[in-house]
Amino acid sequence: MSRLKDRIALVTGSGNGIGKATAIVFAGEGAHVHLADVDGAAAEATAAAIRVAGGHATSHITDITRGQDVKALFRAIGTAHGKLDVLVNNAGLNVRADFRHLTDEEWVTIREVNLDGVVRMARDGFELLKASGRGSLINVASIMGSRAMRQLVAYSATKGAVAALTRGLAVEYAPFNIRVNTISPGFVATALTKQILRNPTITDALVAETAMRRLGEPEEIARAVLFFASDDSRYCTGSELVVDGGMSASL
Ligand SMILES: NC(=O)c1ccc[n+]([C@@H]2O[C@H](COP(=O)([O-])OP(=O)(O)OC[C@H]3O[C@@H](n4cnc5c(N)ncnc54)[C@H](O)[C@@H]3O)[C@@H](O)[C@H]2O)c1
User: Active-site residue among 155, 173, 187, 228?
Assistant: First the structure.
């Protein structure tokens, strides 16, 4: 229960879903967790629940598409701790649309959060991760980064780019003792997938294509993120861990 004892961790998009579960799991393992979300009330609600349970958590209202928000976030963590041990780039969104009808605005919206935001966080967080001496940067991509599904073309493109970004950063950051890895979840019932999973025909088809015959739980993704955050993965960098109940393994 102390795999992250005295570590400083930052999780984006931690007001809801997978990020929230990750923040709670990290705090349970002894980390001081910083929760950054554009939905500040949700981030603070998670942070408050962690503190009530005896953990250490601080919330921040951060829009990762805004450069000044990201700089202010790292400045606050730098002032408080002088280092960052774990950074989880989890915040993400989806816009479902047939690609041929995708508007410029929709493309920019999805790209700014899923890709540009991750780029900004990975770049601006470098100095604090380096100061850790054993930094771990984890990017949450998706199995959709290497697969296709109708109306998820733009989403898939951003997630594939995140996986490529991870590999490049793993090489560049290794001399600074910063490991960089990707978690690629399958389908998990959260606000992000609500629209897709609202359709029982689609849900049944997705479950049928999953070897374990069920969707994932946010905590099951969080446990995999914990592996990359902790010393258990100390020889892993540039790796992608797929957590999808066997969906990609089944044909
Ligand atoms: N749910 C799934 O099935 C699934 C599958 C594969 C990958 N993922 C990925 O997991 C991550 C988390 O997804 P989730 O399902 O928990 O979604 P979610 O919608 O439940 O939570 C996403 C969180 O990100 C926050 N957020 C959105 N835009 C932001 C911004 N600009 N700045 C800061 N925070 C922002 C939201 O406020 C929200 O709290 C995403 O990157 C998503 O693409 C999810």
Answer: 155
